[in-house]
Design brief:
heterodimer; A: about 325 residues; alpha+beta; Butyryl-CoA Dehydrogenase, subunit A, domain 2; Butyryl-CoA Dehydrogenase, subunit A, domain 3; four-stranded mixed β-sheet; four-stranded antiparallel β-sheet; about 50% helix; B: about 50 residues; mainly alpha
């Protein structure tokens, strides 16, 4: 396995870093689009120019590190799935990915049912559903396309924990187009899981860096906090977890195009490692900061919310650990 | 299920458990001669303190 970034990927990383230091908020997405970042998430067959594990991992790690909350993952999954189903989306289409269901943890097809080519039920925490032109919806065993203005579709928007806009979707006999079986799109969905894991990696490295800076700067009893052994040892544990998490993402990114059984093992191992590391970093960084870590004004608060959200996206650590232990595939 | 344990006998039908527990206990020494966990943490945090 090659751990070095190719020249193309290094250039992509450099331009991404430049954009993320210059732009934020509303101006960020147009700047990323202009630099071709959304196309770098897609293969040539999907209308992009890369779509490799390495590209997806480095893009979302950079976005996580910068704290950028964008509905890019939904559009990546949506555009790739539509291209694969032979119904390519228009250029610049924004597509939401409706996966989570209320009250079912991570099982699919419990709160939503299909009758012919109509879906009825609910999806929850759908990022970017408000501005989307179309929505890709998962059911028990299939992937469906629903137009944003379809009859019988109610969108109830609210802010998500990770600073994005999200929505509950209520389907009432809503007409939908079947794109194919869930297992036909497992490679596309795996890319989505990689994106969430890499985003968590960027976020948790930023949180640990912030915590280390604080421990080196803040003084108590005439010494920096890092000089106190109890805190120093907890900081050491965190830095070990960051390296572990980074290895897990690199490993999964390198196996994104492997055969499904091998890829799914690495997918599950990666999501479990990142989910646990995210939760540990969230808890420990607050503890190491003390009271200031709990304030909304300090950068750490947002990082913690984004870390917890990334763990729950497309199956949390417990869900993937159980499927790993049973030798079940990641999707289906 | 009743387990009859006598002397150095392992649980019924789990002979490998005998070797596993002996190995586990024996390997506790690794962390001592490798430097205890706390020593390793102090080395790592020493590097972190320098930034």
């Amino acid at each position: 396995m090659d751990f070095q970034l190719s020249d193309d990927h290094r250039m992509l990383q450099d331009s991404l870093r430049g954009i993320l230091t210059r732009h934020s908020g509303e101006a960020l997405m147009p700047a990323l689009a202009e630099a071709g970042v959304p196309q770098a998430l897609l293969t040539e067959a999907e209308g992009g120019f890369d779509g490799s594990g390495a590209a997806v991992a480095l893009i979302f790690e950079a976005l996580g590190r910068a704290g950028a909350s964008l509905p890019l993952i939904g559009t990546m999954i949506g555009v790739a799935a539509l291209a694969q189903a032979g119904q390519p989306a228009d250029d610049g289409a924004t597509i939401a990915f409706a996966d989570a269901e209320p009250g079912t943890r991570y099982d699919r097809g419990v709160a939503i049912t299909v009758d012919g080519d109509r879906v009825t039920g609910r999806k929850t925490m759908v990022a970017g559903a408000e501005g989307a032109t179309a929505i890709v919806v998962t059911t028990a065993d299939a992937l469906w396309l629903v137009a944003a203005d379809a009859a019988g579709l109610t969108v109830r928007p609210y802010p998500l924990m990770d600073d994005q806009r999200g929505a509950d979707l209520i389907f009432d006999g809503t007409p939908a187009t079947r794109l194919g079986r869930l297992t036909d799109f497992d490679a596309v969905l795996a890319r989505g899981v990689l994106a969430h894991a890499a985003y968590a990696l960027g976020t948790l490295s930023a949180a640990v860096d912030l915590t280390m800076d604080y421990l080196r700067t803040r003084k108590q009893f005439g010494q920096p906090l890092i000089a106190f052994q109890a805190l120093a040892h907890r900081a050491a544990d965190l830095s070990v977890e960051v390296e572990q998490a980074r290895s897990a993402v690199t490993n999964f990114a390198g196996h994104l195009d492997a055969d499904a059984p091998l890829r799914d093992r690495h997918l599950q191992a990666c999501k479990v490692t990142l989910g646990r590391a995210a939760r540990l970093v969230a808890e420990e960084s607050v503890q190491l900061h003390g009271g200031i870590g709990m304030t909304e004004e300090y950068a750490l608060g947002g990082m913690i919310r984004r870390l917890l959200a990334a763990d729950t996206a497309m199956g949390d650590a417990d869900y993937h650990l159980e499927r790993f232990a049973r030798g079940e595939p990641a999707f289906a | 299920m009743a387990l009859t344990l006598e002397g150095n006998e392992g649980p019924e039908g789990a002979d490998e458990a005998l070797a596993a527990s002996a190995t586990w206990l024996n390997n506790r020494k690794l962390s001592i001669y490798g430097g205890s966990n706390e020593v390793q943490r102090s080395i790592i945090s020493g590097a972190l303190a320098k930034g």
